[in-house]
Amino acid sequence: MMLSAQLGSGRSEPVVPSLRMLIGGGAACPAELHKQVR
What keywords are annotated for this sequence in UniProt (predicted)? Predict the structure, then answer.
């Protein structure tokens, strides 16, 4: 949800600047998702 909001905004600065990281669970992120989030 946050990733789609960021990508949909068309802005390079974060939509929520105070949000640093949002990861749930202990499983590793898929490589493509990791690239998009970074």
Answer: Ligase
